[in-house]
Amino acid sequence: MSTEQSRGVTPRRPPPMAPMGKTRYIVMMTLILIGLGLLTGRIVNLHVIDRNFLQVQGNARILRTDPIPAHRGMITDRHGEPLAVSTPVVTVWANPQDLPNDDVQLVLLAQALGQDLRELKDRIENYRDREFMYLRRRMTPEAAQQVLDLRVPGVHAREEYKRYYPAGEVVAQVIGVTNVDDHGQEGLELAYQSWLAGQPGKRRVIKDRRGRLVRDLEVVQEAQPGGDLALSIDQRLQYIAYRELKVAVDENDADGGSVVMMDARTGEVLAMANQPSYNPNNRAGLDPAGLRNQAMVDAFEPGSVIKPLAMSALLETGRFPADTVVDTSPGWMRIDSYTIRDVSNNGQLTLAGILRKSSNIGMAKLTLQLDEPVVPDRYRQLGFGQAPGTGFPGEATGEVPSPQVWSSSQWAALSYGYGLSVSALQLASAYTAIANHGEYMPPSLLRLNQSPQGEQIVRPDVADQVLGMMDEVVEPNTGARRAEVPGYTVAGKTGTVRKTGSGGYQENAYRGVFVGITPVSDPRIITVVMIDHPRGDAYYGGAIAAPVFSRIAGSALRILDVPPDNPESGEEDQ
């Protein structure tokens, strides 16, 4: 019995639910169940039906694919010495919309970037409606880390590479340069861009809405480094050529000059120097004239240095035996309305004497005896008027005029180096046919792993005969005597050419040129030296270009360990 009953109290019971309350309960439970059903359906819809769509939308907001920069291939000399290398750098960028307005943070940021605060603020304002701007490109990793350590909102970093040129201005025009994005802009950097650049990689990362890295997920594609490029250049010889050329240009107060040294056996370019030059590692205040690889992109009238090549064509006709004598008196002659002159009245000259005395009249008289264009044909066979085929951007083709426009004076002028144009590289390459028993070797700026197949252009006996004539040119009593190399025989030819301008040939403006082959007994190197517009007292090729050849060739032969073939001339003092 309950307590209430023992006390005589009737227990109270809950009143029965009113019909209206029961209905409300059912309605509420129904609504709750419907809501749960809708929520469950939505969950199913989001996780099953619309899963792919939502995944794509989510990834679009947080998932990013960042590029992995490819390491640009190295450019080396023929012995593996670096001429162009890529070093890691960091580019600091920002989202201007996330950058703070706090002057204290901006002051610290400007100091770390090494920039003026006012200029930085102005740049930020100019980019305020954008989401990207560079703060500073290609910083050293250490300097960039100092910027990142400030933890300024909106500031980010990206890894890149910067090109560095160990040889600096010495080989600048041959190598060329890359731009701020590491793309080749000049020289071999441009010519072999696709080979050197490599293939950038990709990596998938998660970033927040401010562009900050949250997680590095995976490497989608590995970066493929660029290929290395081994040049034919010998850095040791390149330094010597550049140094001696610079001294000569300065001493003669010249506009500039070029040197090309070529392997006589293979056509490989061992050295190619130009003046003026520039420092590719610091291009502030750059003179555009220094960018040009004059040895390859500039063509000029060669003058008398062409005469041995013309003589090879004349000899092959069979019309002029070795003992042929030409009367060059009185030292001048009229052709058409022009007067051709020698430096002096040389009288009776043999064929070798014509080259030794550099007689324009002798060459003209021989050429005018022929009806066939053997001389210009020989020039074309040796590559004049055609691209050398090295792949160098803007390489000069030069010009050999067509037969339809030749007058007698033009016909004669071609034999002594006027009326056509060549580059220094073409000139050096043409002389491989004289140095190599008549076999022409095409020029190469890349190191060759095996001897190339040459083309027999000149008969071997004729090539050897011309080489012997050139040997007589470089003797103590000739204008080319300053080209002598102690301990070695030298075959060479001087040239002095008047420069042309808008009104024709200029007064007192010349190019001094020398072409030399050494040693004569077994030719190893061919060197072309050109000094442009010397303003000193001397301007003849024998006076200003031949001494440069002597110093360059002498040093090169010792470096290449070529044994002396002319002990009687004595070794140069050490």
UniProtKB/TrEMBL annotation:
Catalytic site: S304 (acyl-ester intermediate)
Pathway given in the UniProt record: Cell wall biogenesis; peptidoglycan biosynthesis
Region (Disordered): 1-20
GO terms under biological process: cell wall organization; division septum assembly; FtsZ-dependent cytokinesis; peptidoglycan biosynthetic process; proteolysis; regulation of cell shape
Keywords for this protein: Carboxypeptidase, Cell cycle, Cell division, Cell inner membrane, Cell membrane, Cell shape, Cell wall biogenesis/degradation, Hydrolase, Membrane, Peptidoglycan synthesis, Protease, Septation, Transmembrane, Transmembrane helix
Domain Penicillin-binding protein dimerisation: 67-216
UniProt catalytic activity: Preferential cleavage: (Ac)2-L-Lys-D-Ala-|-D-Ala. Also transpeptidation of peptidyl-alanyl moieties that are N-acyl substituents of D-alanine
Superkingdom classification of source: Bacteria
Gene3D superfamilies: 3.30.450.330, DD-peptidase/beta-lactamase superfamily, Penicillin-binding protein 2a (Domain 2)
Assigned protein family: Belongs to the transpeptidase family. FtsI subfamily.
Function: Catalyzes cross-linking of the peptidoglycan cell wall at the division septum.
Protein known as: Peptidoglycan D,D-transpeptidase FtsI
Gene name of the encoded protein: ftsI
